[in-house]
Specification:
55% helix; 393 residues; 12 strands; 5-stranded antiparallel sheet; 5-stranded mixed sheet; alpha+beta; elongated; Beta-Lactamase; 10 helices; single chain
């Protein structure tokens, strides 16, 4: 009431021009106030719209990602639940959280008897705790096999792939086991192994019988030599015995070898040298045979001609390299050079005459070879060139 009286008093004292000026200022101020409020609310509204749009875009992206992940999880869940392979998911400490229907069908246990137990408690996997520890240590999947008697009382073989699952921070989240029934392939493998064992036994028996038959021939020749008076004929029979013995020894080595495809040729040469040493007993006190060999393995097609060759060269060295009271040494060396097997047979006897043609003969029969003559005789042969196809028909 006081303000109204004061206003009336002031209005009565002002002039008309000042009244309209003040009134205009008041109206302008009011309009500016209204405009300021309008601009403020428009700016606020625009900001809210931008924020809202950004939030909507973010929500849309997250929603799309969640939809994609959900679809992926649905596919994985469908595959895991419908696959014939058994799938087991466990917590980091080994407690089983989920198994699919394939696991139930394979093992024959209900989910109630499996879920909640430790993996090693269900007694399905062999040495599974050790496999889990190694898998976690290496942070890598491991594959192992187990022989299982299912609850259907069926004995089966399973191949298990154990995979540790880690989160983005590297912390272990889950353990996943995927099992495959490999009983049929395991049975086939056992049949193949059994068949191979039978074939090995058969081949060993063949080598054994061939060796026995050759031994009979040696015995017959030895028996017949008792009736031979002519020295030349007796030496020929003796040479024949040595040749047959070298072949019999090859079959004996194959019979005794663990691998039927190859024999240790160095060991073969050692034993053949012992036989020849005994055969030429009248010269063994002054002639020594020395064998130096790497681990050289030869197959049947190579070992047989090489064995005959060693027999011939060493026999000839015994007979002709050390006449009368001459003493010396016969050296046989087997080595690997540049991926090939090199055999060197040498003696320090009287050597060969200048017109000797064995060099030409050996080149025709064996290909790459050489002979050194002087105070010793040496033969060099490369294993890769001693093949049956190079022998004359």
């Amino acid at each position: 009431m006081f303000s109204f009286v004061l206003l009336n008093t002031q209005l009565s004292t002002v002039t008309p021009d000042s009244f309209w000026r003040d009134l205009s200022l008041i109206i302008i101020s009011f309009l500016m106030f209204i405009g300021t409020i309008y601009v403020f609310f428009r700016l606020r509204t625009s900001t809210f719209r931008r924020v809202r749009k950004l939030l909507e875009e973010r929500v849309e992206v997250k929603t799309r990602q969640l939809v994609e992940k959900n679809a992926e999880l649905e596919k994985l869940s469908l595959v895991a639940s419908r696959t014939d392979n058994a799938v087991l998911i466990a917590a980091p400490h080994g407690e089983i959280e989920w198994v699919n229907d394939g696991f139930i069908r394979l093992i024959g246990m209900t989910k109630e008897k499996v879920v909640g137990k430790k993996i090693d408690e269900i007694q399905v996997y062999s040495n599974v705790q050790n496999e889990i520890e190694l898998s976690i240590k290496d942070k890598h999947s491991r594959i192992f096999e187990s022989n299982v008697t299912t609850h259907h009382l069926e004995n089966i073989w399973i191949s298990s792939t154990l995979t540790p699952i880690y989160d983005e921070s590297g912390k272990l989240k889950k353990l996943v086991l995927v099992d495959t029934n490999i009983t049929s392939s395991k049975q086939m493998q056992q049949q193949i192994e059994q068949s191979l064992k039978e074939k090995e036994v058969l081949l060993k028996e063949i080598h054994h019988r061939v060796k026995n038959n050759l031994q009979i021939i040696i015995s017959l020749l030895n028996l017949q030599s008792g009736y031979i008076k002519d020295e030349v004929t007796l030496k020929a029979v003796k040479d024949g015995q040595n040749r047959v013995r070298s072949m019999a020894l090859v079959h004996e080595k194959f019979y005794q070898a663990e691998e039927l495809t190859e024999i240790d040729f160095g060991d073969y040469v050692e034993k053949l040298s012992q036989f020849l040493y005994q055969s030429y007993g009248d010269k063994t006190d002054r002639i020594h045979v020395k064998v130096e060999s790497d681990h050289v393995a030869l197959d049947m097609d190579t070992a047989m001609p090489c064995g005959l060759l060693v027999n011939e060269i060493v026999s000839n060295a015994y007979k002709y390299a050390f006449p009368e009271a001459v003493s010396g040494e016969i050296k046989i060396q087997l080595s690997k050079v540049d991926g090939k097997v090199v055999m060197k047979i040498a003696d320090n006897g009287i050597g060969l005459p200048e017109d000797y043609i064995s060099k030409v003969l050996i080149r025709i029969l064996f290909g790459d070879s050489s002979i050194e003559n002087g105070n010793k005789l040496s033969f060099f042969l490369v294993e890769g060139l001693i093949k049956p196809k190079l022998w004359p028909h």
